[in-house]
Amino acid sequence: MTAARSHDGPGPLRRAGRATGRALRAPFTGTARSIRKATHAHGAGESGLGKLIELHAVNGAGDVMITVALASTVFFSVPTDEARGRVALYLAITMAPFTLLAPVIGPLLDRLPHGRRAAMAGAMLARALLAITMSGAVATGGLELYPAALGVLVSSKAYGVVRSAVVPRLLPPNFSLVKANSRVTLAGLLATGIAAPIGAGLQMIGSAWPLYGACAIFVAGTFLAFTLPHKVDSAKGERRARLIVPHEDGIPSRPAPAKASGRTGSTRAGLRRAGSGEKPAKERPPGLRSVGGSVLHGLQANAAHRALSGFLIFFLAFLLREHPLAGQSAAVSLGIVGVAAGVGNACGTAVGSWLRARGPEVIVATVLGLALSVAILAAVFFSTALVAALGAVAGFTQALSKLSLDAMIQRDVPEEVRTSAFARSETLLQMAWVVGGGIGIALPLNAVLGMSVAAGILALGAAASVRGLLGAARRGTPHPRVA
User: Fold this and answer.
1) pLDDT (tens digit, 9 = 90+) per residue, 349-362?
2) pLDDT exceeds cutoff 50 at 247
3) pLDDT-derived band at 394, boundaries 50, 70, 90
4) How many CA atoms lie within 13 A of 311 on its CB side?
5) Is residue 92 over pLDDT 90?
């Protein structure tokens, strides 16, 4: 009897339980399969780029959880005057030290090419631990919150620098760097859009709950970082790049290309001098001096976009809280501008991938002019529509300009120094964001004055870069265009 009963299979209750479990899992497993299919398309799964896309989505979701918790504590929970003082304190304690640390991040990570996966995992784990540390202070807004926020900021920027350096190692065949960065960036934006309302819902449960959510997300990211391919940690053929100011004509001197023997033009010149009795010149590592002025002018333009982004975030946050858009509450006003900027950023990323970064110098100059025009209009005819338009255009132009800069680095920077160039350029752009944020918090809450300053930031960037970019576009490049 017992033996016969053992062959009857599971009972009806067990079968019903399994069916219910499959039904409950189906939406999640189906969504996971769809996400995996999208992130691993066109060879991204085989190259490892798909895993980096997923890791960046996790990073974006965790960062926005912490942002929700900090915004609710530092900004929304107190009157405007006190909030401004708290944000000023936040900038003083976190941004000022970060301005000193930022120049060190790129070169430091540049010296650890064999530990990039560990560096990204460490940045994730550090933020997980700091989120737990902040959960005890977020309700009171005590001073102990700010050193932890500084640690989160530094860890986040360190991750961004390493991620930029890793992307060239994971390009699938016939895949441009601008397209790869478009996918990575878009994944982060989508994850941010999904996680932000979740974080707001957790905030309603308790002020520490978004931080608990961030901790869980970053712990998952810590393990996900180690699933990246081992070639991420390879530094074969890489050397460090140095950012220098180009000559007045925008065309720095170019050393002759290296031959198979590994001797550069400067080395051969040194040998010739040695044969004539002269002291050989010391060989210098290849750097951005060998690629013309396009990359450096593109970096100047992107620094203006980043400074504008930091400025608008802080200035509009206080301006719209004190003086909401016509007929709207402060929260709705901030939401309108925030959504417009997010949509603009996503559209810029999509357009950048569609354009495939052909003629990136012209793209960078054009979008800088577009942003400047809208900022001038917002200063002269300040209105709800123009503020929302400026937010959308700022997001659009920043995304498209950064993707075009990536294309120029891929096209013009030698492969052996390309990773280093990404690390250093990303650090400089983060510093520009800090400067813009500092201006935004210090400026009086006058709408016309603020929009005028925004236009001035872009005008300085245009004066420094547009002429060089258009000149480089007219001359063309000795390097092949990258599709």
Assistant:
1) 888 777 654 678 88
2) no
3) very high
4) 27
5) no
Q: Which two tokens stand for residue 331?
A: 């929260």
Question: Residues of the chain with pLDDT > 70: what percent?
Answer: 64
Give the closest residue to 252 by CA, choosing from 260, 261, 263, 241.
241
| 3-state per-residue secondary structure call for the chain | CHHHHHCCCCCHHHHHHHHHHHHHHHHHHHHHHHHHHHHCHHHHHHHCHHHHHHHHHHHHHHHHHHHHHHHHHHHHCCCHHHHHHHHHHHHHHHHHHHHHHHHHHHHHHHCCHHHHHHHHHHHHHHHHHHHHHHHCCCCCCCCCHHHHHHHHHHHHHHHHHHHHHHHHHHCCCCCCHHHHHHHHHHHHHHHHHHHHHHHHHHHHHCCCHHHHHHHHHHHHHHHHHCCCCHHHHCCCCCCCCCCCCCCCCCCCCCCCCCCCCCCCHHHHHHHHHHHCCCCCCCCCCCCHHHHCCHHHHHHHHHHHHHHHHHHHHHHHHHHHHHCCCCCCCHHHHHHHHHHHHHHHHHHHHHHHHHHCCCCHHHHHHHHHHHHHHHHHHHHHCCCHHHHHHHHHHHHHHHHHHHHHHHHHHHHHCCHHHHHHHHHHHHHHHHHHHHHHHHHHHHCCCCHHHHHHHHHHHHHHHHHHHHHHHHHHHHHCCCCCCCC
What is the end-to-end Cα distance of the chain in Å, rounded?
73
**Does the pLDDT value for residue 441 go beyond 90?**
no
Sign of dihedral through CA atoms 89, 92, 95, 97? negative
- The residue ranking higher by pLDDT, 217 or 245, is 217
Looking at residue 40, what is its pLDDT? 61
Contact of 232 with 238, CB cutoff 8 Å: no
CA nearest neighbour of 94 among 148, 158, 156: 148
Give me the sign of the Cα torsion angle 357, 358, 362, 366.
negative
Amino acid making up residue 8:
D
| 116-131 burial code (b ≥16 CB/10 A, e <16) | bbebbbbbbbbbbebb
pTM of the model: 0.72
d(CA 206, CA 216): 16
Per-residue pLDDT tens digits for 117-173: 888 999 999 999 999 988 877 766 666 777 888 888 888 888 887 888 788 788 888
Handedness of CA 331, 337, 339, 342 (dihedral sign): negative
Q: By C-alpha distance, which of 304, 305, 480 is closest to 408?
A: 480
pLDDT band for position 218 (cuts 50, 70, 90): very high
Amino acid in position 81: D
Residue 443 contacts residue 316 (beta carbons within 8 Å): no
